[in-house]
Amino acid sequence: QVQLVESGGGLVQAGGSLRLSCTASGIIFSINTMSWYRQAPEKQREFVATITSGGSTNYADSVKGRFTISRENAKNTVYLQMNSLKPEDTAVYYCNRPTGYYVSWGQGTQVTVSS
């Protein structure tokens, strides 16, 4: 059974930083591209960042230069380092495989950025 567990969210002031973690079980993590998504209140879930099994990365324009995705295969964990946070980054953050290859969603982790 696949399980994704996100953590590391919290309340931070604008300009601050947070590091999110997502630990996966039930999949061969090392061969999977993994992505971060977010969903703000009353908005659709949106793509944030992705990292391939080989370490190639891609980011949404809204977070490029501020967020960094990384992975640690030995721990079945993908990270999202978020710097220079803005109020518009407030959302529940989720990890999963890329669109079209989703597994069961975790509960996500809430990130709230105050102005």
* Helix/strand/pairing category: mainly beta
> What can be said about the biggest beta sheet?
6 strands, mixed
Helix fraction bin: under 10%
Instruction: Bin the strand percentage.
Output: over 45%
Tally of contiguous helical segments:
0
Describe this structure in words.
- This protein has 115 residues and is an all-beta fold.
- The chain has no helices and ten strands.
- A six-stranded mixed beta sheet has the order 2-10-9-4-5-6, with no helix packed on it. A four-stranded antiparallel beta sheet has the order 1-3-8-7, with no helix packed on it.
- The protein is globular, with a radius of gyration of 13 Å.
Topology:
Layout: E1 3-7, E2 10-13, E3 18-25, E4 34-39, E5 46-51, E6 57-59, E7 67-72, E8 77-82, E9 91-96, E10 109-114
Parallel strand pairs: 2-10
Antiparallel strand pairs: 1-3, 3-8, 4-5, 4-9, 5-6, 7-8, 9-10
